[in-house]
Every structure is written in C-alpha cells, then in structure tokens.
Protein 1
Amino acid sequence: MLAWSTPDLLLIDELGYLAFDARGADLLYQVFNRRYQRASTIVTTNLAFKDWGKLFHNSAAASAIADRLVHKGLLIRISGKSRRSDQEVE
C-alpha cells in the first residue's frame, strides 16, 4: 500500500469496472487517505457518486472515499460519445 501512496501522481483509470469487496474498499480508502492533501490523484469512472455504494458494497466506505477525492479537488465531467466506440475492433 505504501508504494501506491508515495508517487507525486496516481492515476486510477476505469474505477468501477470491477467491484471491491470490503477489504479492497478499505485498502483503497487507506491509499486515498494517505495521499489526501499530499499528492495528486486522478480517477476516471463512468459511475455517478450515487452508485458508488454498490461498487464498494458499503455506502459509508463509498462516501469516505468520495470525500477524500473531491475535497479541494476538481471534478471534470465529460459528456458525449466515447471515441473508443467509433474505433473498429481488430
């Protein structure tokens, strides 16, 4: 976990692609908590915050994780069609 806590920038792409069990949610919270106001974290997801309780199997864990990410953070909402959906599958 310390390895994930120390980089200047941590990028987590596609949060929500797989759900977390209770232990996984706890570990992810610990990473975000250690990085909180110390280092930059970028998270991409297709899930609205209201759906994070299902992702982490616990609304309290979802709320705590979201709180660490958005406090003094910048939310960028991108709408429109995905560029990947226009590409041919090889």
Note: The chain has a mean pLDDT of 89.
Protein 2
Amino acid sequence: MQSVAVLHRHLLVWRDPPAWPFMWRGLLPLLGLVLVGLFAAGPFARGAIEASVQREIRDQLNASGFGWVRLGVSGQNVTLSGEEPGAGEGARASALARGATCPSWIGRRTCAVKVIGRFTPPAPLAGAAPAPAQACERSLAGLLAGEQIEFATGSAAIDSRSGPLLDRLASELGSCPGTIRVEGHTDTIGRGSFNRALSEARAAAVRDALIARGIAAERLKAQGFGARRALGDNSTEAGRARNRRIEFHAIPAG
C-alpha cells in the first residue's frame, strides 16, 4: 500500500495591534503641555504679573520721592492713593506709574494697563499758597498729565505743535491768583551744568510764551532744576522723555 504524505501549509497572517494604546501614549505629553498652559494662564500667572507690577512701580515711585503713595495692584490695573504732600504731587505720581516699565520676555514694557489716582489734597499749612492757588496748580498739573510742552533737541526753542497746549495753560493761568513758578526739568543725557542751564532756558521760554499770551510778567517766575527731580527711569527712552518736562507751582505769599 502506497502511503501519501499530505503537506499542510499554515499561512501566517500578520495583524496590526490596536492603535489606541500607542495613540494615548503619544497624547500624554500634549495633554501635559495643555495642563501646564492652563495653570500658567490661571492664578499662578496672575499672581506673578501682579507681583512684578507691584515691585517695579513701587521701586520706581520710591526712587523718585513718592514713598508716601499707597499702591494697589489687580492684574495690571493700578490704584494710587494717599495724602498729597503738595499740590500736583498726585498727578505726578500717576504720570510716573503710567510710564513705569516691567521686564517681559520681549524686553521692558509698560507695567500698568490702567492707573487710577485717588489722592487726598494736602491740608493748608501756615505760609502755604491759599486754596484757590493750590486748586489752580492741580488744574495745571492735570493739563500736563497727558502731554508736555515739546522743545527742539538740546534747545529751548518751543516746538510749534505745543502752541495749543500753551493756549490752554494761559487760559487756566488767567483765572489763577498769585504768583506761579515755571519749572524746567531735563533727563540725565549730557553734562549736569548744561542740563541745568537748558532747564532754566526752557522755563524762561515758556514764561515768555505765556506772557505773550496775556499773562502778567510779574505773576510768573522761571527756575530750572536740571535732572535733579526725575519722575521716570533715566536708563530708558520712555523714562527720559517723561523727565524732560515743564511744571507749574504756586508760590506762597510771603
């Protein structure tokens, strides 16, 4: 009897395993990044931003002599308060806070989105300017809070674009009692003696411009302080721009 050998061939078929275990393992790092991003955008990021704004504005206020200002921060909204040691000091503190800069990943940027000043006017002191003069001084400071009298670089020549502002200042001064001191201030670029002379020349130029607009000459005094009374950080262009300014102060009767 002849035997017949039968060869059975078993075909092996490769089947891919389910994809979902590998997909989940690939999505885990992405999920982690999303959670980190949500955490960074939440209370931690808000707290870090508030701390930076609080620290930077506080330091810049203190460096410019505004240690009396109370500072409240919510996100990038800033509230300033306190009793003004002198008329117009609150407006100057607010202007400094608006220009204060904080570090960021793209360099230093303005800290505050919004600045609110809630200051108590200074109490009248013996020998101080009368209340109407102090009110006038605050009004003048308010006019200069949003813009400043502009000059040609390194010169006391007033830019023609400042004409409308000078008109408004003269109109306000026309109703002010007493004598007003026109103060000139500069940044720290250049020699100290040059900056002092430049600040005096600019104050005198503003005085002359106001006299030309009808203010009696005997009611205006001009004085320059150079770079001694900085409001902003002289290491930044924005800070230097804020330091190049004109201020008005009532002179107490004596």
Note: Strands lie at 70-74, 77-83, 101-102, 109-110, 114-120, 179-185, 220-224, 245-251.
